From TrEMBL:
<dbReference type="GO" id="GO:0003864">
    <property type="term" value="F:3-methyl-2-oxobutanoate hydroxymethyltransferase activity"/>
</dbReference>
<keyword id="KW-0566">Pantothenate biosynthesis</keyword>
<comment type="pathway">
    <text>Cofactor biosynthesis; (R)-pantothenate biosynthesis; (R)-pantoate from 3-methyl-2-oxobutanoate: step 1/2.</text>
</comment>
<keyword id="KW-0460">Magnesium</keyword>
<dbReference type="GO" id="GO:0000287">
    <property type="term" value="F:magnesium ion binding"/>
</dbReference>
<dbReference type="InterPro" id="IPR015813">
    <property type="entry name" value="Pyrv/PenolPyrv_kinase-like_dom"/>
</dbReference>
<feature type="active site" description="Proton acceptor">
    <location>
        <position position="185"/>
    </location>
</feature>
<dbReference type="InterPro" id="IPR003700">
    <property type="entry name" value="Pantoate_hydroxy_MeTrfase"/>
</dbReference>
<feature type="binding site">
    <location>
        <begin position="48"/>
        <end position="49"/>
    </location>
    <ligand>
        <name>3-methyl-2-oxobutanoate</name>
    </ligand>
</feature>
<keyword id="KW-0479">Metal-binding</keyword>
<feature type="binding site">
    <location>
        <position position="87"/>
    </location>
    <ligand>
        <name>3-methyl-2-oxobutanoate</name>
    </ligand>
</feature>
<comment type="similarity">
    <text>Belongs to the PanB family.</text>
</comment>
<comment type="function">
    <text>Catalyzes the reversible reaction in which hydroxymethyl group from 5,10-methylenetetrahydrofolate is transferred onto alpha-ketoisovalerate to form ketopantoate.</text>
</comment>
<feature type="binding site">
    <location>
        <position position="87"/>
    </location>
    <ligand>
        <name>Mg(2+)</name>
    </ligand>
</feature>
<dbReference type="GO" id="GO:0008168">
    <property type="term" value="F:methyltransferase activity"/>
</dbReference>
<keyword id="KW-0489">Methyltransferase</keyword>
<feature type="binding site">
    <location>
        <position position="48"/>
    </location>
    <ligand>
        <name>Mg(2+)</name>
    </ligand>
</feature>
């Protein structure tokens, strides 16, 4: 048997260039880390979504660096193949120094291989500062949950042409600054396609249509156990992969297969 080859930044770029869809899911503990890795998930995100699905909050803003480091440390040792990304939580990258300190903790203590931050071109100096110091960075555009108290609601971004053009330019600026990956959340499918086609790095969508280079969802959402699902505010882009599945691992495998074969997202999941 050939040894398992871990996914890295170069492999993600190869998948993009080859047209192979990238599968990503959130994860917060050892048991699911083993399961997701075994099921073939390419990228695992220890997301600040844990503030909602693990801690039971209404937003992600209370999540701390310590929280992400703890959960990342639970996940990292159990991944043989999947590439581990850790969120930088609210205001942990407000300055260059704080961003570097938080990233150091994510990678040295938490075992992450990449950090993710939210924001457009205004974060370019942070991305560059981290990148030239060897920190792989994933930028996050579109709907940005950490900005919820500023924007007031979880809603689709980039519907107007002016806003779409700004997002396109933000993606370009961030990748030129050194971002190795982009997450694009809650935007019209047409904009998701434009950004993916223009981007030099892989673009992972969540509610961004079928034409991004990969997809990411929150684990609890695909298992139909998210608080957002149980209280009736299920996001349009969520699909319940537990439906018809005999067990949890089968549901995760079904998600991976649906993304790889472009069966997910379907038109009903798109804006």
């Amino acid at each position: 048997m050939e040894p398992i080859k871990p996914v890295n930044v170069a492999e993600l770029r190869r998948m993009r260039e080859a047209g192979e869809k990238i599968t990503a899911l959130t994860c917060y503990d050892a048991s699911f880390a083993l399961l997701e890795d075994r099921a073939g998930v390419d990228v695992i995100l220890v997301g600040d979504s844990l503030g909602m699905v693990i801690q039971g909050g209404n937003t992600t803003t209370p999540v701390t660096v310590n929280d992400i480091v703890y959960h990342s440390r639970c996940v990292a040792p159990h991944l043989k193949r999947a590439f581990l990304v850790a969120d930088l939580p609210f205001l942990s990258y407000a300055t260059l120094e704080r961003a570097l300190d938080a990233s150091q903790r994510m990678m040295q203590e938490g075992g992450a291989k990449m950090v993710k931050l939210e924001g457009g071109r205004e974060q370019a100096n942070i991305v560059e500062y981290l990148a030239i110091r060897g920190v792989p960075v994933c930028a996050h555009l579109g709907l940005q949950p950490q900005f919820i108290h500023k924007v007031g609601a979880f809603k689709v971004q980039g519907r107007e042409e002016a806003a779409a053009e700004i997002m396109l330019q933000d993606a370009k600026v961030l990748t030129e600054a050194g971002a190795d990956l982009l997450v694009l959340e809650c935007v019209p499918s047409s904009l998701g396609k434009r950004i993916a086609e223009a981007s030099k790095v892989p673009v992972i969508g969540i509610g961004a249509g079928p034409d991004t280079h990969g997809q990411i969802l929150v684990l609890h959402d695909i298992l139909n156990i998210s608080p957002m699902v149980t209280i009736g505010r299920k996001p349009r882009f969520v699909q319940n992969f537990m439906e018809g599945a005999p067990d949890i691992e089968s549901a995760v495998r079904a998600y991976v297969q649906a993304v790889k074969t472009s069966k997910y997202p379907a038109p009903e999941h798109c804006f």
